[in-house]
Structure formats: C-alpha cells, structure tokens
Amino acid sequence: MTHRLALLALAAVTGLPTSVAAQTAARTTAKSAPKSSIPHTRDGKPDLTGVWQAGSTQRGNWEEANSGLGVGGTGRNPSAAAFPSFNDRPADSEAAPYQPWAAKKVLEAFNRRAIDDPSALCLPLGVPRLALLGLFPAQIVQTPKQIVILYEYMSVFRVIPLNAAHPDDLLPSYMGNSVGHWEGDTLVVDVIGFNDKTWLAGAGTFHSDALHVVERYTRIDRDRINYDVTIEDSKVLTKPWTIHSSMMLREGTRLEEYVCAENNLDPGQYEKLLKEGVKFTRE
Amino acid sequence: MLAPIMCCLVIPLPAHHSFGAEYDTSKPVQLTGIVTKIEWTNPHSFLYVDVKDDKGSVVNWKLEGYPPGVLYRTGWRKDLTVKVGDTLTVTGWRARDSTNLAHSREVTLANGKKLFFGPPGGTGDGGSTPAVEVK
C-alpha cells in the first residue's frame, strides 16, 4: 500500500478528514526526521513556529545553551556571558553609519551609561532591538496568511500579515507596522510606522519617524534562523545599516509573564544618583 | 535567634573594570547571611539578607537580580530554592552611593549549590562598545 493510500485508509477508519490524518502523519514523520531537517508547513514554506532565543548560536534547549557562564552579560569580564547585551552593538556588525551630529548624540548616550534607555521606563524596545535580545525568548506562530511574534520582554507582540500592503493611516508606534512575504525560503518583513522613541541596536542608537526596517528570517537548519536586518533612516543615517544575527530554537521553553511596571525602580535610582552628584558617566 | 553562621562581609581581591550606572563594579562584595525577604518582581527581583558587619551589627542588604521569568530559566523555583530564614552567600557589586544595596550575581545555597541570581557586572550600563565609531 502506498503512503497516500495508507492515509486515505486511516481517514476512512478514523472518520477524520484526510488533511487531519495527513497532518498526524506529517508530525510523526517530523519527529523521526534527522536533526538537520527543516520543518515545512502544509503550504510548503519553512515553518518558523517555535520558541526562539535571539543573539545566540548555541544549539540545545535553554538550559543546555545557557549553562556555565549564564545569560545577559556584556562579554567584558571573565564571568560574562557568551553573547552581548542589548546595549552592545551586535557582534560582527559594522559601526552604525550615523550622520556626524547624530553620532555625537549616540556617543553621549553611551557615555551616560544608557540611563536614558527607553527600556528603563518599561517601554517596548522596538525593531530590531527587541529581535536581538537574548535574555528573553520569543515565540513565532506561523499561518499561511499571517505570522505572529510574541516577545516575553515587555509582553509585546507583532502581527505580520503576508502579501499585504501597509495601511495608509498608520499611527506612529513603538513596534511599527509589519507586513511580510516569502522570497524563496526567506521570510521578508517590511516595517514602517515607527515613533521616534526607541533605540535600534545598542546604547543611544536613536532614530527618526522616517525609520524603515527590512528583516530577513531564513531557517538554515532545524535549530537556527539567520536574522539579517537592513535599517534605513535618511534623517539620521548616511546609508543603510545592516546587522546580521541569529535565533536558536529552544524546545521546551515557555514564555513567562513580564509586567515591567510592577516594581521598576530604575528611573528613581538614576535621579537619586544624579542629585547626589555621584559620578558614573564615562570620561 | 539568629543562626551563628550569619557573618562576614568580604571584599574579594579580583577587580572588575566595568561600571554600571547604579552599581560600581570596582566594589565587589561577598555577603553571607540570612534571607529575610525575596521579592519576585519585574523588571528585577530583590533578595534581602541580614548580614553581620565587622562591628557585629546586623545590617539588612538589598540585592538586585534577574526578573522572575529569567530566574525560573536559570534554575530557581519560587518558595522552594530559597526560603526566608535560609543562610546563603551572595557575590555581587555595591551600589555607587555606597548604601547597603548591591547587584547580585552568584548565590551559594546552604547545601553548596550555586545559582546565578543576576547578570555579570556592568550589564545594562550602555555596553562595552559604542554603536558608532569613535574618531
């Protein structure tokens, strides 16, 4: 009996529609497939569904990939983690091509040790900064018509309709407006409609409301998505800024609640230090 | 009645050379004491520990660390891993204003098990490399 006939027979016996029987068979097949295989959806696209950790290249579940040195470090001292914090320029990326006046402003924020970080006020990180953050997982839910990304950090989400145009009545927002399409096996997401209140990637990397981000998600094997970003902002940058990062599959990890406003003491502490004249800025 | 193990503020020798806005990584601390309270809160959790200072007085230290979700993934279980009254040792870095506040990193439980309660020193202080080139 051929595989297809077997499915039809299974559908007849169980009373389930063929598609459900096929789905069950597909899941069983996926389970026993070699580790290197890339899961695909029924419409033939690479399936990005799952819980992912950004900024890492380590395989394994969360505990395996983050044991030893721990997570969330700056990579500066012996006890630091293997991947940088969201205040650093992502590893192996070029320096941000800011216009001279804007570069000065970025450096000022860096020298103030990022106390102006929007996240210290519990605000969403924006794109791509949130998509580069490794301390907290993100969950991708993929359907044929839209893709949803749920981020644990600040409990924000992105709904990404596929093959759709941006609305022409956008309100400026922290996470922008995303639309996506498939280019071969790469999901391309176009994001506009930002406010000017987030940072791009690293301390002080401000932008204007002219920000335009293009993200490319390519699942290159079972465990890894290559995440490539092009950032355009003609008001502050001299040319597009490209960043290359990755996301690693973290099976068994679940998203936890993150209610930042619960007990946020940072702004008060910074204000207190400044009032007391405590010197903490870089020279 | 406080347990007799509760003692000792130790300043380890290895110097850290990064600075946080709130915590000074040139001021590492190691504290051993008794847990008086744990706040499992976002964006950061806090561990409160009674520590006997070098004059014999008991001082309550406040230690900042990871949020609950990260603690969970780091191996902590609320109300199981550490309870009020437990003795433990914490390493970290003092606040720049020299109050009894510190950024915690590694916690050693009474049974010898070690767990991270917070990130490495300097985390959240703007990073190690500016995003722009410095000429």
Please give a quick description of this structure:
The complex is a heterodimer of chains A (283) and B (135). Chain A is α+β, with helices and mostly antiparallel strands and 283 residues long. Chain A is built from five helices and nine strands, in the order ααβααββββββββα.
User: Class by helix and strand content of chain A?
Assistant: alpha+beta
- In the sheet with the most strands of chain A, the strands line up as 4-3-2-1-9-8-7-6-5
Total number of strands of chain A: 9
Measured by residues with Cβ under 8 Å of the partner chain's Cβ, the largest interface is: A-B, 65 and 44 residues
Pick out the low-confidence regions of chain A: 1-35, 70-78
Number of strands of chain B: 7
The chain-level structural class of chain B is mainly beta
Overall residue-averaged pLDDT value of chain A: 83
Uncertain ranges of chain B: 1-19
For the record, give the distance between the C-alpha atoms at the N and C termini of chain B, rounded to a whole number: 61 Å
Strand fraction of chain A:
15-25%
Tell me, what's the shape of chain A? globular
Give the topology:
The complex is a heterodimer of chains A (283) and B (135).
Chain A: H1 3-14, H2 18-32, E1 50-54, H3 62-66, H4 100-111, E2 138-142, E3 146-151, E4 156-161, E5 177-183, E6 186-192, E7 212-219, E8 224-232, E9 241-249, H5 266-276
Antiparallel strand pairs in A: 1-2, 1-9, 2-3, 3-4, 5-6, 6-7, 7-8, 8-9
Helix pairs in contact in A: 1-2
Chain B: E1 9-10, E2 23-39, E3 45-52, E4 58-65, H1 68-74, E5 87-95, E6 101-108, E7 114-116
Parallel strand pairs in B: 4-6
Antiparallel strand pairs in B: 1-2, 2-3, 2-5, 3-4, 5-6, 6-7
Q: Can you walk me through this structure?
A:
The complex is a heterodimer of chains A (283) and B (135). By secondary structure, chain A is an alpha+beta fold. Chain A has helices spanning 3-14, 18-32, 62-66, 100-111, 266-276; strands at 50-54, 138-142, 146-151, 156-161, 177-183, 186-192, 212-219, 224-232, 241-249. A nine-stranded antiparallel beta sheet of chain A has the order 4-3-2-1-9-8-7-6-5, with no helix packed on it. In chain A, a hairpin with a 2-residue loop joins strand 5 and strand 6 (186-192). In chain A, helix 1 (3-14) crosses helix 2 (18-32). Chain A is globular and about 60 Å long. Chain B is mainly beta. Chain B has one helix and seven strands; from the N terminus they run ββββαβββ. A five-stranded mixed barrel of chain B has the order 2-3-4-6-5. The longest helix of chain B has 7 residues, at 68-74. The model of chain B is unreliable at 1-19 (pLDDT under 50). Chains A and B meet through helix 3, helix 4 and helix 5 of A and strand 2 and helix 1 of B.
